[in-house]
Amino acid sequence: MHKNNRQNRRRVRRGHQQNPWFRQHVSDERCNTVAQQSPQDSGRADDDEAPSTSSGTAGSSSAPDLPGYYFDPEKKRYFRLLPGHNNCNPLTKESIRHKEMESKRLQLLEEEDKQKKKIARMGFNASSLLQKNKLGFLNATSYCRLAHELRVSCMQRKKVQIQSSDPSALASDRFNLILADTNSDRLFTVNDVKVGGSKYGIISLRGLKTPSLKVHMHENLYFTNRKVNSVCWASLNHLDSHILLCLMGIAETPGCATLLPASLFVSSHPGERPGMLCSFRIPGAWSCAWSLNIQANNCFSTGLSRRVLVTNVVTGHRQSFGTSSDVLAQQFALMIKLWDLRTTKCIRQYEGHVNEYAYLPLHVHEEEGIVVAVGQDCYTRIWSFHDACLLRTIPSPHPTSKSDIPSVAFSSRLGGFRGAPGLLMAVQQDLYCFSYN
What we know:
Elements: H1 2-17, H2 20-25, H3 28-35, H4 39-49, H5 54-60, E1 69-72, E2 77-80, H6 93-114, H7 126-134, H8 140-153, E3 156-164, H9 167-172, E4 174-180, E5 186-192, E6 198-204, E7 214-224, E8 228-234, E9 242-247, E10 256-261, E11 278-281, E12 287-290, E13 299-304, E14 307-312, E15 318-322, E16 362-365, E17 370-374, E18 380-384, E19 390-394, E20 407-414, E21 420-427, E22 430-435
Parallel strand pairs: 3-7
Antiparallel strand pairs: 1-2, 3-22, 4-5, 5-6, 6-7, 8-9, 9-10, 10-11, 12-13, 13-14, 14-15, 16-17, 17-18, 18-19, 20-21, 21-22
């Protein structure tokens, strides 16, 4: 065993001495540090400490990949990877990966600001699309769908000015979630407050018109220290009269589904009476959906572990339906249909989405023919619903963080029936609009 140790030390010294790049860019002190490492330390640095991107970075700068070291192409020298203990600014795999992701995000933001027109598909532009339509190569349906995709790929980012009766709250509260109503003229928001917990609000989108993008925030003093798992608009008195929230349990307080009247924030209907505010004890609810089907009137469903619970808010009657997995998404059908579930195979795959463990919503817009999702990498991706082509990848305007994943809402009529189509993105304290004509 001692003989093998001496041989390993000689191999390390010989490798460093025969490498002119290493002698040029690494100090004698760092060479001695590597030479004096035990074989166990060298192996651990090779297996656990080397980043997955170090070989690619080293290769691009013609620098060899050394176990336990990272080559910085800007400073043109090697740095030793540290295990992430209490040293000052340790160079670890996580810090290197975060630095590379931030550099990529800034590069994409710069490209988006410079590039006015983007191409969703190869050889895909307005002139060629119009020419193919005139020559009869595209029918009306395909032409409208592709024209819509072209407009989506050319959306430009603009910051929205938020007006509120409490400007100080706008500077400190951070957006956690936004959800547009049926007509896309209101946004329900969940904001993380600085003192802890969350509060709710409704943003009126009536003023969301170019060139001045202005909206008004109607806040409520309703605070909660619970995590919001899921939100949906509910139509009890009239269309989108309430908001349904699934709240996680905390300490000895069980989870629940809460029904909040939208009139608590602002009354959009003249003479509207205060709506019903109620709470249903439903522990462990991951998702919720409100029924617009007349055969399940005044009902909502909550997705739990391996079952769905349907509750009538007027009578309190409940029905439970078993499933083979946890229910993280659900939706009521407007008409009663029979579904053939025998063909359990993948029909279409939307590539590029990044999510390892978080519960992140997926927005399917059949009318616009697109699918929108925000990943854990804080990139917003838009696919064609028809053929799963990736139309757009939008970087976050703020540095990437697990606590600052953007929340988005897409509609062909932002601000109401005559509103402009586009995407709304909320991240940290800011609201952005990606609109097109």
